[in-house]
Amino acid sequence: MDLTIKTEQLDGQTHLYIAGEIDTYTAPKLRQELVPAVETNDVVVHLDEIHYMDSTGLGVFVGALKASKKNGTTFTLVGVSERIRRLFEITGLSSIITIDSGVRGGTQ
Predict the structure, then answer these.
(1) How many CB atoms lie within 10 A of CB 81?
(2) Within the chain, which residues score under 50 in pLDDT?
(3) How far apart, in Å, are the Cα atoms of 89 and each of 4, 38, 59, 62, 68?
(4) How far is CA 33 from CA 17, 40, 49, 68, 89, in A?
(5) Nearest CA-CA partner of 7 in 54, 36, 104
(6) Among 81, 79, 74, which residue's Cα sits nearest to residue 97?
(7) Where in this chain does the record put each STAS domain (predicted)?
C-alpha cells in the first residue's frame, strides 16, 4: 500500500494528514515531509487513516520529536487508533511523544 500526505496550514500550525501504511517502503516519504516541517513549525500529525505501522514508522516519529525539541517547536499526534497507540505504549514512546486522543479529523 502507498502513503499519502496532505499538508495544510491551520491556526499557525502545520497539519499533516497521513493515509495508508507506514513501513520500510513508505517511511522515507513521511520523514522527508515531517522532519523539515517540525524544524520550523508546530506540527499536528493526523493519523486517522493509518491502518498499519511498523517500527520504521516509530523511528520516523522519534526523529521528528528530536528535531522539534532541537528547534523549539511542538509535535502532536492525533487520531491515533487503538492498534497504533498500542505500538507507542509498548515501546514507551507514548510517554515522550504527545498523543492527543481528543482531537479527531480535520478539513483534509
Answers:
(1) 14
(2) 103-108
(3) 25, 22, 14, 14, 21
(4) 11, 12, 17, 13, 24
(5) 36
(6) 74
(7) 3-108
* Max Cα–Cα distance, the chain, nearest Å: 34
- Give CA–CA dist 35/84, Å, rounded: 20
C-alpha cell of residue 68: 522539534
Global pTM reads 0.90
For residue 71, the tally of other CB atoms under 10 A from its CB is 11
10-21 tens-digit pLDDT: 989 999 999 999
- Say if residue 72 is exposed, middle or buried (CB neighbours under 10 Å; 0-12, 13-18, 19+): exposed
